[in-house]
Structure formats: C-alpha cells, structure tokens
Specification:
single chain; alpha+beta; 4-stranded mixed β-sheet; 3-stranded antiparallel β-sheet; 13% strand
C-alpha cells in the first residue's frame, strides 16, 4: 500500500506516492493550508513568505499533475511556520515590505525611538542602526522649540543672549504660555519699535523708498491697476476695503447692513460730505448714512470711541501710545484730529448711533440671518488667491532674479542671480536655505554648499 500509482484524469499523467498521506498526518505533518486554517487564516501567502525568507523546504513532497503537495514536520518546521502565520496581518506586511528590519517595520521603529515618520523618510532611515544613530544626535534649537510648542525667534526675542538649551527652552515655554495676549502684543510692539530705530531698520526703510522711487511711471500705473483688479476680484470695493457684505454695490459690515435693511429710507454714503482742518491740514469726512425722510446724516460709532468723561477719542492711536509705538506728542496730534472731526459732526447736526446700544443689538439679531445672503466670500486678499496664479519656470526664474541679490557658491565659484535657478541646478530643496547661508544664519546647506552675497565676498577678498 506504500507505493500506489495514481493517474490524473485530465492529463493522463502517472505518478507514485512514497508514503500514505494519512500516515503522515497521523504523525503530525501538515500542509501550509492546514497550518493557516489552524491560525484562523484563509490564505497561505504568509506561510510561503516565511519559508522563502528562512529558506525552509518541505520535509515531504508529493508531485502531481499541477505541482506538488508539500508537508512540513511537526518537530521544527510546522511549529515555526505556525508561530509566524499567527502574527497580525499588518506586521507580516511590514516584514514583507522591508525584510532588512529583522521583524520590525519602519513605523514600529519610529515609534520605538520617538521619531516622526516624515523624518524617517527625509533621512532615509532603514535599519535599526540608522534609528539608533539618529536618535543619539542632539536635537537642534528649532526642533526643541517645536517640541515645547514655541518658535525659536520668539525664544530669542524674549531671551537675548541666552543659550537655547532644552532646559532653558522648556522653562521659557511654560512662562510664555502663561502670558496674556496684551503682554505678548506689548513685547512685539516694543521689538518692532527697536527694529525701526536700529541701523538695519532705517536701512530697510531707505531701500524700500529707493525701490519705490526707482519705479517708472508705467510700473506705478501697472501696480495701481493690479491693486484695483485684486480689490474688484475679492469684493473689496471703493473706500470700504475691509467690507464683509456687499449690498446694492456698496460695502458694509454686519451692524451697518443690519441697520440698512431695517431702514430702507437710509442712503449709503461713499463720497466726501464735509471737510475739517487740523494743524493747517484739511481732511475729508464721510458719514455712514443719510436719512432721506429726516434729511439728516448718520454716523455709526463704537462705545470705545468715547472715554469715561464722554470725550471723543481715537482708540487705535491710544493703544499705540500704551504699547509705546508712538510718542505722546504724536498721539496729541491724532487726538486733535479726532476732536476736530467730532466738532464737525456736532456742528453739522450728524446723528451719532452707538453700535453697542440695546436697540442696535436687537436690530442686528433680527437681521443677522438675512445679512448672510449678502456676504462676500472673498472679502480679503488671501494667500489662496495668490496660490491660484500658476507661473512657468521661466517666469519663476525671472521673478527670482528681479528680487534677489547676486550671490556666489564657494564650492564651485559660480555666481548666481536667481535663487530658483541655483536651487534647481544644485538639487537644493528650499531656496530659503540658500538665503539663510548668505545672511549667516546657517553655515551651509544640508548637502554641504556654502554661499555668500557677491558684495560681501568682494569686500572680504579685496
């Protein structure tokens, strides 16, 4: 019975079994399909993968017309295959993708060493040795700041001269997060004031003025046309450039539109009605509405335009005085203008309505849903609009040359006028990294290139 001849009914091929299959199964020999079923799997692909990775061959094989029936012994092969096949599908797939990881996927190694998968891809970390070497490197100040939820420039502005160690950044991060918005704004305005008064800030202002003066009349006209086109495209019509609602071609904020809908007899004003003089300068005054029935102009103002004594003030300039961005003499000049404007309102019997009054609040609440029908979806010129403009490669390079200073690559001695062209030629991912090297923020780019502005290079090599 050990040697039985079998004939394939379809092909007529003859083959001989050396042992009975039943006897093998009684001894514990199993096929890959039987092992997979015991592990609750439907497919034998994971068993085949394990055998190919570990070079395991079947202990007994019975040939037949379409191939062979393979059996694995219970002592070693079958048990090892079963252990592998019983693993989770994702784990098996990861090993299949990268057999060099010795049982751990790249994502599992990234979790183990607390490295983001974006960083794993960026630095091409493959083996566990790569992960170990990378994790042993000290984190850069920028990465440390990201870790504690702040920016490096903020740490440096609040802690001039302090070393950006992890402990210093951690302590400052806790302190910074406890600050109020007013304290942050005050610090920012003080830093801006210092910058404006510094030699670098004054030089930047001079360069900006010089660039503006160097524009030809045609370029200035073209700039005005582009600005006008952008305003029309984004719904920022006429004098009210920050309007969020458009009604009958006029710009409104929510309170103004709610009042307009409540009082159709009111006419929206967008032309100069009165003039007033302050310190020998004449200014235009444009009220908000004209009541066609009562023949009276109307001005909508906030409660913050009046101090505790009822005196009319300019709240924006008052905040600038508190923050230290303007002097007291400059603020007094703005206040004289506010007083003069208020006197012009009183003199011409302009009706002043406070937008925070209970009456106005009820009108806004009543017409709020109706106002949504007139909302401008693109009331501000956002970066999204700019991103919609697609430039060709030649246009990008030409634009880059127009706004870049000539610089030299120390590695090859070549002079470039375009950041974009240089980045493409030297396979540098970000043009900002070139600028950072030129200004001395970084010593070199990640792929080892060193750059200097041509004028700085010439000065050093005179």
């Amino acid at each position: 019975m050990d040697n039985i001849c079998y004939v394939d009914a379809r092909t007529g091929a003859h083959f001989m079994k050396k042992e009975k299959i039943k006897d093998l199964e009684r001894k514990g020999f199993k096929t890959l399909k039987q092992i997979a079923k015991e592990c609750g799997k439907q497919s034998i692909s994971s068993g085949k993968l394990f055998c190919s990775l570990n070079n395991i061959k079947p202990d007994v094989s019975f040939p037949y017309a379409r191939g062979s029936i393979d059996y694995y012994s219970p002592s070693s092969s079958s048990a090892l295959i079963k252990e592998f096949v019983s693993k989770a599908n994702n784990e098996i797939k990861n090993i299949k993708r990268n057999p060099n990881l010795e049982g751990l996927s790249r994502s599992e190694l990234a979790k183990k060493y607390n490295i983001s998968f974006k960083t794993v891809k960026k630095y091409n970390l493959i083996k566990e040795e790569d992960f170990q070497k990378f994790s042993s490197k000290p984190l850069s100040p920028t990465t440390l700041c990201k870790k504690y939820g702040i920016r490096l420039c903020i740490f440096q502005s609040w802690n001039p001269g302090a070393e950006p160690t992890e402990n210093n950044i951690k302590i400052f991060s806790e302190k910074y997060k406890s600050l109020t918005q007013e304290e942050k704004k005050l610090h920012r305005s003080q830093q801006m004031k210092k910058w404006n008064q510094s030699p670098e800030g004054l030089l930047a202002k001079e360069k900006a003025k010089e660039a503006l003066n160097n524009l030809s009349e045609d370029e200035k006209k073209e700039s005005v046309k582009k600005c006008k086109a952008a305003k029309e495209k984004n719904g920022t019509l006429g004098w009210n450039a920050q309007c969020k609602y458009i009604y009958n071609g006029k710009g409104y904020n929510l309170t103004e539109l709610a009042l307009q809908l409540e009082h159709p007899e009111w006419k929206r004003i967008d032309t100069v009605v009165y003039k007033y003089t302050v310190d020998e300068k004449t200014y235009d005054y444009v009220p908000d509405f004209f009541d066609t029935e009562k023949k009276q102009y109307i001005e909508i103002k906030g409660q913050n335009f009046f101090d505790k004594n009822g005196k009319y003030i300019d709240p924006y300039q008052l905040n600038r005085l508190k923050n230290g961005t303007i002097t007291e003499a400059e603020y007094n000049g703005y206040q004289r203008r506010a007083d003069s404007k208020y006197k012009c309102m009183i003199k011409n019997n302009v009706r002043i309505i406070i937008d925070s009054s209970d009456e106005v609040k009820q009108i806004v609440k009543k017409n709020k849903n109706l106002c949504k029908n007139y909302q401008s979806n693109s009331a501000s010129y956002t970066s999204g609009a700019r991103k919609g403009i697609k430039l060709s490669e030649k246009e990008k390079i030409a634009l880059s040359e127009k706004h870049s200073k000539p610089f030299i690559c120390i590695n090859n001695g070549k002079i470039y006028k375009s950041l974009r062209k240089c980045a493409d030629e030297l396979n540098i991912k970000s043009v900002t990294s070139i600028t950072n090297v030129c200004i001395g923020k970084n010593k070199q780019t990640r792929n080892g290139y060193i750059f200097k502005y041509l004028e700085d290079y010439n000065k050093e090599n005179v």
